[in-house]
Design brief:
about 220 residues; alpha+beta; Ribosomal Protein S5, domain 2; 2 domains; 6-stranded antiparallel β-sheet; about 30% helix; elongated
Length: about 220
């Protein structure tokens, strides 16, 4: 699967609108089955709610995008929630917004705004991350050249994972496969032609909005 943006953890958001409570819950999922299990778990625990509306977007062998208004007027809950997920560019996420009716009708526009806000709030609380498939590479280098190497890695947007110190410095670096040749060229220039990179293998990593590795 190609690189994609998702959420880091489960998110929660509470909105009160004209005495109705809208409780948004978001979860990262890896399959449609996992999304459906999450939705069912919320429905079971919030069995006394007026509505449990949901939306999810999951990409496996195909893209699965589903939503439900769960009894709200058509187009006022599930679809606006899915639109929020799409506009934020997220994949492999499921969101449920539970509503406890407060006795005052909100109208179609009010419902769209409330469900959209509860969905967005839950996603923001969950934290957005990028999932990328990279090569994991070990880069040993002598101490007096380590500063140059580190600056190059940062300036060229390579992801530094771990740094080990012994008789030399060894960086663990994550690189898109298509940038391996460029990385080797830069290292060779820094070391005067000495190239001792070790490709460990391919690995999926998560990075935050500041391109920092999430361990």
């Amino acid at each position: 699967m190609k690189d994609y943006k998702t959420i880091e953890k489960e998110g929660y958001f509470l909105l009160e609108e004209k005495r109705s409570r809208f409780i948004g819950r978001a979860k990262p999922v890896s399959s449609e089955e996992e999304a459906l299990e999450f939705i069912q778990a919320i429905k079971t625990s919030c069995w006394d709610a007026t509505h449990n509306c949901y939306a999810y977007s999951v990409e496996q062998d195909a893209l699965y995008q589903r939503y439900s208004d769960d009894g709200e007027p058509q187009g006022t809950a599930g679809l606006p929630m899915l639109d929020v997920i799409r506009k934020r560019g997220l994949q492999n996420v499921a969101v449920v917004v539970t509503r406890y009716f407060g006795g005052i009708l909100l109208g179609a526009g009010g419902l769209v705004r409330a469900y959209s806000k509860a969905c967005s709030g839950a996603l923001i609380d969950a934290g957005e991350v990028w999932v990328k498939t990279c090569l994991e590479i070990k880069l040993p280098i002598e101490y007096h050249l380590s500063g140059k190497l580190q600056n190059m890695l940062i300036n060229e947007d390579f992801i530094i994972g771990n740094t080990e110190y012994s008789d030399e410095v060894t960086y663990t670096v994550y690189s898109p496969p298509e940038r391996l040749d460029f990385l080797n060229q830069q290292i060779s220039e820094i070391t005067g032609g000495v190239l001792r990179t070790e490709v460990i293998g391919s690995k999926k990593i998560k990075i935050d909005e500041d391109r920092k590795l999430i361990k």
